[in-house]
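Design job #97: recover the sequence.
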């Protein structure tokens, strides 16, 4: 800022503003408490969720035994079972069916556990992943049992006989599909929520 003095403009120094020049509220607003991770209260519900999710392996195995294709084989001159042309591809079809079922069940499990608003948090997320892995492992163990119901083995075989052999799961990494999808679904829902406590306080 300048002012006229003797016909010349002389600069005028303006003092810097201090904190007292601004309005100070009569009281300070308290900061909202930062939510903490709940562990102890969620242990028992998470254990119950783990047990329930792991039992999903039973219907998964049953559904797979109905949908997975069998493999047609013929008895050769040596009395051995030999796959017919192109029938060996059904082994990969059976694996693909199991993976698709696992992906679907894992997706529903992850979002289903997220709906338990009062128990949202890392403890429930870990229980969801471990329970889904246990369910997939149980499904692999029971898959052969259920498949044997629909593909019985005849008592005697002769050369040239054709039978349909039950599908089988032999790759252990198939158990990763269900827990991976469950954790992904829970994680996406967590990231989408955006609140500090994941909305737990609204479930009262």
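Job complete. Output follows.
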């Amino acid at each position: 800022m300048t002012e006229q003095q003797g016909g010349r403009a002389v600069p005028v120094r303006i003092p810097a503003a201090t904190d007292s020049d601004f309005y100070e509220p009569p009281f300070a607003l308290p900061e909202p408490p930062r939510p903490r991770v709940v562990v102890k209260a969620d242990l028992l519900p998470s254990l119950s969720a783990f047990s329930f999710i792991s039992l999903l392996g039973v219907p998964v195995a049953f559904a797979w035994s109905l949908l997975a294709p069998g493999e047609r084989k013929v008895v050769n001159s040596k009395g051995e079972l030999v796959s017919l042309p192109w029938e060996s591809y059904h082994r990969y079809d059976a694996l693909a069916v199991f993976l698709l079922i696992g992906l679907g069940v894992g997706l529903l499990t992850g979002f289903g556990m997220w709906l338990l608003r009062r128990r949202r948090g890392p403890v429930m997320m870990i229980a969801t992943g471990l329970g889904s892995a246990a369910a997939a492992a149980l499904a692999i163990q029971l898959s052969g049992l259920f498949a044997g119901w629909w593909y019985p083995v005849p008592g005697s075989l002769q050369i040239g006989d054709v039978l349909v052999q039950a599908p089988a799961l032999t790759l252990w990494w198939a158990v990763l599909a269900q827990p991976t999808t469950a954790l992904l679904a829970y994680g996406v829902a967590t990231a989408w929520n955006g609140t500090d406590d994941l909305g737990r306080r609204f479930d009262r």
